[in-house]
Amino acid sequence: MARQERGLTRIELLQGTLDLIILQTLRWGPRHGYGIAQMIRASSRDMLQVDTGSLYPALHRLEKGGAIAAEWETSENRQRVRVYRLTAGGRKQLAAERSRWEQLSEAMAGILGAPIPEADA
Amino acid sequence: MIALWRRRQKDLELDEELEAHIRMAIEERVARGEPREDAEHAARRELGNLGVVKEVTREMWGGGWLERLVQDVRYGARTLRRSPAFTIVALSTLALGIGATTAMFTVVHAVLLRPLPYPRSDRLMLLAYDYPNNAFITEGGISDRQWVDSRSRFRTFARVAAMTPGLVTLTNAGDPVRLQAATVAAGLFETLGITPALGRTFGPDDERIGGEPVVILGDALWRERFGADSNVVGRPITLDGVHHTVVGVMPRRFAYPLAARLWRPMRIQLAPNRFQIMSVVGRLRDGATRAQAVAELDALAAAERTRDSMIARVTPLKDTVVGDVTRSLLVFAGGVALVLLIACANVANLLLMRATTRQREMAVRAALGAGRRRLIRQLVTESALLWVGAGIAGAGVALIGVRALLALAPPGRIPRHGEIGVDGAALAFALGVSLVTGLIFGLVPAIRATRSSVRDVLAATARTLTGRDGRLRGALVMAEIALALVLLTGAGLMVQSFVRLRRVELGFRPAGLALLTVDLPAATYRSTAAMQATHQAVLDRLGKIRGVESASAVNFVPLGGAMIRGDFKADGRTIPPSYLVAKPSVAPGYFRTMGIGLRLGRDFTARDVASSPGVAIVSQSVARQVWPGTNPIGQRISNKDVPGPGDWLTVVGVVDDVGQTSIDTHREPAIYLPIQQLTQTFFLEHMSFVVRTASDPAVLLPAMRRALRDVDPDQPIGSIGTMESAISATVAEPLFQARLIAAFSVVALVLAAIGIYGVVAYSVAERTHEIGIRVALGAGHANVVGMVLRRLLVLLVPGVALGVIGALAATRVLSSLLFETRPNDPVTFVGVAALLAIVAIVAGLVPARRASRVDPLVALRVG
After folding, report:
1. pLDDT-based confidence at B702, cuts 50/70/90?
2. Lowest mean pLDDT segment, chosen from B28-32, B206-210, B302-306
3. Residue B562 backbone dihedrals phi, psi, to 5 degrees
4. FRET label pair with B747: which of B286, B502, B580, B609, CA 20 to 30 Å apart?
5. Which band of pLDDT confidence, cut at 50, 70 and 90, is reported for residue B539?
6. Under an 8 A CB cutoff, do B368 and A8 touch?
7. pLDDT tens string B420-473
């Protein structure tokens, strides 16, 4: 039940958006999964709450695709953590996805910018 | 293997990564001032279902098909373990269906499909002529005279060999015993392509009349009676009182023709006015066809000038070995396939219901990024796992099933008995059936389960999602009802046919009768007088057993499997040449002992002996046919074609007609002769002693054995038992068929009832909310029950209609197995449909009553 409510209240991410967000986040340097989640939340001013459950499948998918690489490191409080960093391929993918996103949001803005009395939420 | 090991490593690393995530989340929450317990709870909840997250993450790793398969299988096994009730019900249902099908396949394969165990057995043919004009020859074959004339003339056959089956008595090797034996022409074994395990086969010299008596032993006989002695060749053994020398031993499992246990060479002595019909097997020459063989046989027949028309027939040996069992085996195979279909439909239904309840799980997995094809593959793997598990369990069921089938089948009725066993082919069949049905019946629920989009499921409540699946489930149950009805109708017809068979008026009273059959070997009892003396001695002893009311004897007992039949002459009357009557010979007191009514005249007495005038007793239909409206007593008949003055017999009595040959042919005309007046040993060798008692005839059997042993300790018992069990044995096959089909249909009925119960129960659970509202608005119990049952009727009525149509089409194949029962017998159809409807309504009533007790408050709160 709890799941369902959360699913209903959050802003659902468009397919593929999560990849873009992860890649963008990793541009600021290598980070472990928890750190990535925290950073997404912080930088979206808590508007986007990435479903942690879907974060790890996405990370592993990107790793498999070669956009990011992972290594085990020891954190400051002496825990072993898996740290992800952007690869050269990942930077290219980021640039590509970014421009696609910009095109999409421009198009969306064009549609939504048209004068319509009231949009249904 | 290395790939799998690496995978295990990655699994462990993923666990560690997610644990680290949770730990960090907890620490941060604690640092913010949350109590540790709440923090832990919140952190775990945030991550969601850890198992599903790991599952979906692992899927991202990709990997080879093997890795993914292993992963899917593991996942499937895990989900099945999590719902043991579902798994057990589905597994056992399927194992039963697959096991029964495999058992049936094993028998069908061994009997019908597998070639005979002889080299190039497809070239082996049985040669025969049918004599449509000769009423004496009921079964076609080749006469001894034709065989002698033409055995070396066949051009289309590389080798030919004649044989006749028979029984012999073996003495001086343990207890005296009657054995199935065969008299065979030299070259039979070579024709079949069989070489002896020890010694030699028969050569042309062995066919010489007056040659040394020789014998070849079967493997089983050699082991049982001769201790598998490798020096048995050259040893003398006693058959029918004559010394024979063992010249060879056949290899294991060879038993042809019929279930022959030993073989003797054929020594033909042609005599005018007498002939014997034999079976002839031949191996087609390379390049020769069956049609050419038929043409050659026809040409040979044309060259022979006989007044009978002869029709040549060349049949593949396998067809003659398998014979008429084909149809009943195929009927059983069809029946068992229906059971399997019903079982599969039931499990598909279970899967569909499960899929509905798991839609949320599927949606979540899809939301986390798992692809639909991936989900379908996993669900299909899961059901395939179920089906393969059931296939393995089913092979076990088949192992037991085949044994049970062979144990229940009437003895000697399933040909190639020794070749039947659950082998590689049967196991492959079980696995193949389970995989194919698993894929088909697993795929549809899987597609259904993953079809709804994430948004649908997460936004909607479960209730609104099930309409389409409900229709599919309904259709499955409808199909189950129809299939079960087809099986039940078949069973109903078979049972009815059997009941009619048992109600046949036989013309005698089997209750209270015991039967002892012996075969006196002509070689030891050389004269009719010696045989008659022995019969009399046995009769005297039987009559003195305590509790015996009367004892008598007959050479060919009714329903005993053999009967002498022939024509006769009547003084001053002409009888149509096709009018043949049974000709049993009996001792005095036979009619009283058997309970056959004496209508006119007298019974035979001890004074009707060889030296007194010849007498006969006729049955009523003979009297009506030959002397209509005239008293037959004192009339004269003869069994000779051209009767001399001493060949006439005076009719002294008239008795009721009796069913002589088999229970399903009508009562036949018969002429009885007194055994004391017979002049040929042939008619005296085979003799059945009948004994009547007021109490249980089974009690008399040991005393009857003793009576025979007192007279001749070397004489084996051919058979002994009560008359009722002897009659049961003649109807053993219809009984077996009826039982088997009834067993299938009971399983089908139970499975269909489970299916109906499941669907109705599920629809009640689905509609608890609605029912709650109805009850709250004042609907009574009856209203609610009626509402639920209406839903059932929607399935039941078309299901029954479809079933009736299917049964009308399917039961036509039964017609040859039915006795005085039409395959579209309306009583059976109505009765069976009613039975099915009652079972369906009872199965639906249980959940319907539960629905009527729904507490509106609870129902509305749940909704």
Report:
1. very high
2. B302-306
3. -140, 150
4. B502
5. very high
6. no
7. 777 777 788 888 888 888 888 788 777 777 766 555 555 554 444 455 667 788
Predicted model pTM = 0.69
Q: Which residues contact B797 (CB under 8 A, 6 or more apart)?
A: none
From chain B, the residues in CB contact with A33 under 8 A are: 17, 21
The answer for residues whose C-beta is within 8 angstroms of residue B554's C-beta and 6 or more apart is B584, B585, B586, B587, B590, B594, B687, B688, B690
Asked whether the ipTM of the predicted complex exceeds the cut of 0.85, the reply is no
In which residue are the tokens 């709650």 written?
B772
**Which value, in Å, is the radius of gyration of the alpha carbons in chain B?**
37
- SS3 (DSSP) at A16: coil
CB contact under 8 A, A81 and B17: yes
pLDDT of B244: 92
DSSP label at residue B116 = P
Could you give phi then psi for residue A29, rounded to 5 degrees? 125, 165
pLDDT in tens, B779-822: 788 888 888 888 888 888 999 999 999 999 888 888 877 888 88
Q: Confirm if B645 and B589 have CB atoms less than 8 A apart.
A: no
Q: What Cα–Cα distance (Å) separates residue B113 from each residue in A37, A81, B107, B117, B315?
A: 66, 65, 9, 12, 16
pLDDT tens digits, one per residue of B417-428: 767 777 777 788
State the maximum Cα–Cα separation within chain B, in Å, rounded to a whole number: 133
* Percent helix / strand / coil, chain B, rounded to 5: 55, 15, 30
Residue-wise pLDDT for B309-338, tens only, equals 788 888 888 887 776 677 778 888 888 888
Residue A49 — very low, low, confident or very high, per pLDDT cuts 50/70/90? low
**Cross-chain CB nearest to A64 (options B14, B56, B61):** B61
pLDDT at A75 over 80: no
- Residue B361: what residue type? E
pLDDT in tens, B40-73: 888 888 777 777 788 778 777 766 677 777 778 8
Beta carbons within 8 Å of B65's beta carbon, 6+ residues apart: none
Distance CA B472, CA B349 (A): 9
Closest CA to B751 of B488, B538, B494, B511: B488
Strands B242-249 and B214-217: parallel
Q: Cis bond leading into B257, ω under 30°?
A: yes
DSSP state of B614: P
Residue of B6, B7, B15, B17 to mutate for A, most A C-beta atoms under 10 A? B17
Please indicate whether, in this complex, the C-beta atoms of B20 and A4 are within 8 angstroms of each other. no
Closest Cβ–Cβ partner in A52, A72, A79 for B47: A52
Q: Where are the alpha helices (DSSP H) in B158-278?
A: 188-192, 219-226
What tokens were used for B548?
């015996």
Q: How far is CA B691 from the centre of its chain?
A: 34
**Where does B61-153 have alpha helices with state H?**
65-82, 84-108, 144-150
- Chain A residues with beta carbon closer than 8 angstroms to that of B13: 72, 82
pLDDT for position A121: 40
Q: Which two tokens stand for residue B276?
A: 């014997």
Q: Structure tokens of B262?
A: 């030993």
Q: In this predicted structure, which of B121-135, B415-429, B641-655, B716-730 has the lowest mean pLDDT?
A: B415-429
Contact at CB, B48 and A33, closer than 8 angstroms? no
Rounded Cα distance, B388 and B431, in Å: 7
Give the three-state DSSP class for A80: strand
Three-class DSSP category at B512:
coil
CA distance B448 to B20: 37
Quote the tokens at residue B367: 């939301």
* Nearest by Cα to B384 from B608, B79, B53: B79
Residue from B191, B186, B192 nearest B207 by CA? B186
